Amino acid sequence: MNKRQKSFSSIMKAIMYVFVVFTFALLLWIIGSVVLQGIPKLTKEMFSLVFTTENLSMLPSIINTLTVIVITLAISIPIGLFTAIYLVEYAPRGSKFVKVVRMATETLQGIPSIVFGLFGYIFFVRVVGLGYSILAGTFTLTIMVLPLIIRATEEALIAVDDKLRQASYGLGARKLRTVFNVVLPPAMNGIISGIILAIGRIFGETAALQFTAGTFEQIAKPTQQGSTLAVFMYNLTAEGRHTKEAYASAFVLLLFVILINWLASRLGSRIGGINE
């Protein structure tokens, strides 16, 4: 390596370090701002079962958020998982159908959430007749996160070595048994990563849910309207009178995201350890 190459390498390394430090500092600044301004405003009243204009309780929104996540994942994970399995394991490689499905999933990933919200409002709220409800919101979110889960699962399955499949077939195992007992276990870490990303998108979604699930602050049944924690935080900020309470709800939202990411990472590590 000559002097010119060494100088270029040193410059690129310095630029890389600068961007790493900048990214880390930006993350710390965002988290620190939320923590420092959110914790002092947390009160017992903000965790009351019933929301009022006096207590500004976020507990109904927290419960609604968990309901939306559970229902959305219960619908999207099986559909996304089996779709990816079909595309990778059963569909002929290089077929036009597979190319069309992949193009569709990639296109759906780039569509703004407000477009999904408008579609959900027209189709689920008005045409299907669900009205503003948790169900209308979860069906809309299912369409939003399906491409994410499909692509993550597909990439995880593709990354599995074909030698494992061939060895399974050589031992007399059938296609279905090979997929579930040989291919899926080593791909679980990638699949869980896709699910984590889907949960993160559900947690932070506002536009699509405002059009479908509504903004009413109550502990909602699936057929009733109710706001999630992100929508609740947006409403507080939009009013301009409860900025401190919005920071408190942002802190709780941040805690939930960190907790779920940690649990999912632990689950992925445990599954990976079992597979090894």
UniProtKB/TrEMBL annotation:
Single GO term (MF): phosphate transmembrane transporter activity
Keywords annotated in UniProt: Cell membrane, Membrane, Transmembrane, Transmembrane helix, Transport
Coiled-coil intervals, chain numbering: none
Membrane topology classification: Multi-pass membrane protein
Entry keyword Zinc: no
Phylogenetic placement of the source organism: Bacteria, Bacillati, Bacillota, Tissierellia, Tissierellales
Domain ABC transmembrane type-1: 62-264
Transmembrane segments: 62-88, 100-124, 130-150, 179-203, 246-264
CDD domains: TM_PBP2 (cd06261)
Gene Ontology CC annotation, any one: plasma membrane
Gene3D superfamilies: MetI-like
Subcellular localization: Cell membrane
UniProt source species: Helcococcus kunzii ATCC 51366
Listed GO biological process terms: phosphate ion transmembrane transport
This protein's name: Phosphate transport system permease protein PstA
Protein family according to the UniProt entry: Belongs to the binding-protein-dependent transport system permease family. CysTW subfamily.
